[in-house]
Design goal:
By secondary structure, this protein is of the alpha/beta class. It is built from twelve helices and 22 strands.
């Protein structure tokens, strides 16, 4: 299997043109389709998870294979349910193990015709699309916010709109708020009416030109690199990020301020928004944080805190067990190769109290077909030179230019 051996320089001074936000791109593409493609999108993500939606919407084949893209599976399921025609939607073996019953049940409440083709509650699905009326719908919010977003995206097109009641504790609420904000950008009337209810009026989207912001999740790996960089004069400039971003993962700037990284917002010579990262000497002796609203950046902070010697207790991680892999197990396995022993509690918490073990001489990091395993461990090579990353192409799922950007920052990468 393909493998990269990575060594990062101890002094970093680079400018990174970050990829477009996958989260915003995928939401905007569904809305574009619901405006009969009259919307014009700029700076759309080129990652695999977005490309499968682009291809599916353009070609609309009878069988739609979204591979490993979770957002594509959820968003396209709802879109196909309200779009005339019969389609089968499927994905990788891992995708066929990821639950989709809460979304299917909610769509069926509105009369959607969806059939499980293999295991009950899981893809693949056969969907016979038709006009749905909308109305009152209930869904559990403790499994995936993507189910809720999928329903919200189609709601303005329904004759009765949608009153969506969310039962149980909602995970990743910032992603729901991001969805509502993007819907507002396209003229939708969609708002929280109580702590657990969203009302979407039957007001169709307005076509427009829409520019997509760069990805704060991708920025997290550059924050990690600077936090671990031994040269305090190092500086990283990240293009395309804005102050007051609606992306939930923009919280990295606050969390990393407690790990020695200062964030300054400004403009580049061509008036492009730019974030400047510099080191400062103030770090917390311990970090405890609930990642319920930002689960995608948890891996970055596990690796960073271990390498900085900062004990932690990270909670709100239950959704990591049903991602591209069981990320809790994967993190425990791979961080041990770097000499750290972390433990899992309640299937939703990771704790490190400083326990160490013998580090492997030349660690080979298994990525489990998970992009968010590859990137934080690659960034760790600034502290542990010659880390090997197995199956490095997994980064294409969200950040296709990651390895080229590392090389541009001075990384030495050997293709084994």
């Amino acid at each position: 299997m393909k493998q990269y051996k990575i060594t990062l320089p101890t002094n970093i001074n680079t400018t990174i043109d970050l990829p477009a936000s996958k989260s915003i791109s995928n939401r905007a593409l569904i809305i574009k389709a619901l405006t009969q493609d009259k919307t014009i999108l700029t700076n759309v993500s080129t990652c695999d998870d977005t490309q499968v939606i682009v291809d599916a919407l353009r070609e609309m084949p009878e069988v739609i294979d979204i591979h490993a893209a979770g957002t594509a599976m959820r968003f396209m399921t709802a879109y196909l349910a309200v779009t005339e025609g019969c389609h089968i939607i499927t994905g990788t073996e891992r995708m066929r193990q990821r639950p989709i019953a809460p979304l299917v049940d909610a769509l069926r409440q509105m009369g959607a015709e969806i059939e499980y083709l293999e295991k009950e509650g899981f893809p693949p699905l056969r969907i016979n699309g038709k006009q749905l009326e909308g109305g009152h719908v209930e869904i559990d919010g403790n499994i995936s916010s993507q189910f809720i977003t999928a329903l919200l995206l189609i709601a303005p097109t329904l004759p009765q709109g949608m009153e969506l009641k969310i039962n149980e504790n909602l995970t990743s609420r910032p992603y729901i708020d991001l969805t509502l904000d993007i819907m507002h950008d396209f003229g939708a009337d969609a708002n929280w009416t109580s702590e657990n209810t969203i009302l979407v009026e039957p007001k169709k989207y307005e076509a427009r030109t829409f520019a997509i912001e760069s990805d704060w999740s991708a920025a997290s790996y550059w924050y990690e690199i600077l936090a671990l960089c031994p040269n305090t004069d190092s500086e990283i400039r990240l293009k395309g990020l804005t102050d007051g971003s609606r992306q939930g993962d923009s919280v990295v700037r606050y969390l990393f301020s407690m790990l020695g990284v200062k964030t300054t917002f400004g403009k580049d010579d061509d008036d492009t928004p730019v974030v400047v990262l510099k080191r400062h000497n103030c770090t917390l002796p311990r970090l405890d944080y609930d990642f319920k609203n930002q689960p995608d950046i948890a891996q970055t902070f596990v690796v960073t805190c271990c390498l900085l010697g900062i004990p932690f207790r990270f909670t709100g991680l239950s959704t990591l067990k049903i991602k591209e892999t069981d990320r809790l197990v994967a993190l425990k396995n791979e961080i041990r190769k770097l000499g750290f022993v972390i433990r899992e509690e309640n299937e939703s918490e990771l704790i490190w109290d400083g326990e160490r073990c013998e580090k492997e001489k030349t660690p080979v990091i298994s990525t489990y077909k998970d992009h968010r395993m590859a990137m934080p461990f690659a960034a760790a090579s600034i502290s542990i030179p010659e880390i090997n990353i197995d199956n490095p192409d997994v980064v294409n799922k969200s950040y296709p230019s990651f390895w080229n950007d590392l090389k541009g920052a001075g990384a030495y990468i050997i293709d084994n």
